[in-house]
Hints:
The strands form four sheets. Strands 1, 2, 3, 4, 5, 8, 14, 15, 16 and 18 form a ten-stranded mixed beta sheet that branches. Helix content is about 15%, strand content about 30%. The chain is of the alpha+beta class.
Amino acid sequence: xxxxxxxxxxxxxxxxxxxxxxxxxxxxxxxxxxxxxxxxxxxxxxxxxxxxxxxxxxxxxxxxxxxxxxxxxxxxxxxxxxxxxxxxxxxxxxxxxxxxxxxxxxxxxxxxxxxxxxxxxxxxxxxxxxxxxxxxxxxxxxxxxxxxxxxxxxxxxxxxxxxxxxxxxxxxxxxxxxxxxxxxxxxxxxxxxxxxxxxxxxxxxxxxxxxxxxxxxxxxxxxxxxxxxxxxxxxxxxxxxxxxxxxxxxxxxxxxxxxxxxxxxxxxxxxxxxxxxxxxxxxxxxxxxxxxxxxxxxxxxxxxxxxxxxxxxxxxxxxxxxxxxxxxxxxxxxxxxxxxxxxxxx
Length: 346
C-alpha cells in the first residue's frame, strides 16, 4: 500500500514484513548549469508539495483521473531529485527495496520502455538503501543529466525524444521489497549502534517571481539538463531475492505552477536560487560515494538524448534563463557510513 504523509510517499508491505517500509520524497533543488561541465550534487531545498489527484478530480483531466496517483507543482525549467529512505528493522539493517523510476514511461536508468519486473542486463532499477537518491538520467557510468521540467508537446522531454510522442509526462515509480525469508537470512539481528548525522547550512530562498506567460500548459514532463556526478549502484543481491509477487506503483503528475494554483487553490512555491548565486554565497554542494559498491554503465539510449540547451538550438529558443556557470567551491563529502542529510533549509 502507498500512503501520502507530510509530502512523502510511504510504501508499506505489511504482508511481506511488518517493517518493510520505503519512503520517497521529491526535493526542490538548484538547476545546475547546462554547459557540459560535470557538477557535484546540488542540495535539497525542501520537499515539493504533494496532493492526491483524487482530491481534485473535478479540476484535472480525464487522463489524470484515470492514472490516479499524486501531483506536484513545478515551474518550467525547474529541477528536482528523488530521495529514498528506510528504517532499521529489529536491529538488523534497513529493509532493501528495488526501485524503478521512469519519466514519461521511459526508464531513467536504462532508457528502455516502461515494463514490470526487474531487468538485470542492463540493470533498470536501483536498490535502497544502497542508492540514497536519484537526480536524473543515467547517461554514462558515474554521470547523470539532471531532471528538468519542460512542457509536453515541445519536443524537449526524454519521452518525446525517445518515442516521438507526448502521451504520459510525469514520473512513474515501481517498488519491490526483498523477500522476508531472504531478509532474515541475510541480515541477522545485531547490537544497536549509534547514529551519525550530518546537517547542512540553511539557505535563503529567492524572492517569489511573477508567473511567466510561457507556462500555458497543464501537463509537464522531464527533460535532461546539466551533467552531474552521480553513480547508479549495481544490485548486490541475487535476482531471486526480490519479491516480484508484491509491488506498489505510483504515477506522479507534474503540474505547471500556474495550474497548480487553479487546481488546488494554493500558491506555487517560491522559485529556488540560481546555482551561480548559491555558489557565490559559499553554501554547500555534495559529493557522495559508497565504499562497497560499483556503478552500472550508463544507458546508450539516454546518452544520445539531447539536453534542454542542445535541443533548444534546433528550435532557436532560450528555455533556460539564468544558465550561467557556477563555481562550487564548498563541496561536502558524504559516504554510505553516515546517516545522510543532503537537504538545506529553504
